[in-house]
Amino acid sequence: VQLQASGGGLVQAGGSLRLSCAASGRSFSRYTMAWFRQAPGKEREFVAAIRWSGGTYADSVKGRFTISRDNVKNTVYLQMNSLKPEDTAVYYCAASEQIATMARYYDYWGQGTQVTVSS
After folding, report:
1. Does the pLDDT value for residue 79 go beyond 90?
2. pLDDT for position 73
């Protein structure tokens, strides 16, 4: 599976962005898809994951971010609302055959897209 993330950018606090991650390869629907992020000087952290429908979220983004997927388009999305400066990071999409929130269980990673939230 190859993953290509897009949609990052610069936004003011309180604004919104939608990230997309397009997957190539077969059997996209069988993978858990997730978003992680890494801020400068910090470790990569879990943001959200989706297997079939609904989603699992980190406490820091719950109620503000929504993960969704389109199994026809082989794409996973992350709608980010009410953005805060602390959301600034490089965002990575990832795929796993397991249902997991820890990065070590994800075998496939996209290249990352920068999100910068100004105060």
Report:
1. yes
2. 95
Strand 32-38 and strand 17-24: the pairing is unpaired
Cβ atoms 118, 108 nearer than 8 A = no
**Rounded CA separation 75/69 (Å):** 6
Going by C-alpha positions, the residue among 36, 82, 90, 80 that lies closest to residue 58 is: 36
- Return the closest-CA partner of residue 93 out of 29, 30, 19, 27: 19
Q: What is the pLDDT of residues 100-112, one digit of tens each?
A: 999 999 999 999 9
What distance in Å separates the CA atoms of residue 76 and residue 115, rounded to the nearest whole number? Answer: 17
Question: What single letter denotes the amino acid at residue 4?
Answer: Q
Over residues 38-69, the pLDDT tens digits come to: 999 999 999 999 998 889 999 999 999 999 99
Question: 102 in helix, strand or coil?
Answer: coil
